[in-house]
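Lecture 7 notes: from sequence to structure.

We start with a single chain of 135 residues. Read the sequence below before looking at the structure.
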Amino acid sequence: MMKVFRSLAVWLMIILAESIHGTIRTVLVEPLVGGHRARQLSVVTGALIFFFIALKLIRWTEVRSVRGLVAMGASWVFLTIAFEFALGMLVLGMSYERLLADYDIANGGLMPIGLAILLFTPLFAYRVTRGNGNR
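Now the structure, written as tokens:
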């Protein structure tokens, strides 16, 4: 049960960092390149942010199996989608259509790619740290 709480704690750190990242994107980047392009760029920078956090904290979760690491990533994806839609619709008043636009790869929405990266981030972070003494 402790592994579940630790995984959730890491996700909370990731989502906090991503929320700050989104605010910075909205205030600084969107006026320069537009909203759609800024959201596309933030998929790349966001992936780097959550990989860095996972890299630093993956050992702390004590999850070691491939199955457990991928399950952790899947839970992070689910929580992230739920958080994004709840925040977007309930707090920011965004339409369902506007939120779904980020998932439309045919029209340049890159969120599915970001979520695929997030799915495997725990596994990648564990494999990177496994051999370098970060225990």
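The chain has a mean pLDDT of 92. Keep this in mind for problem set 3.
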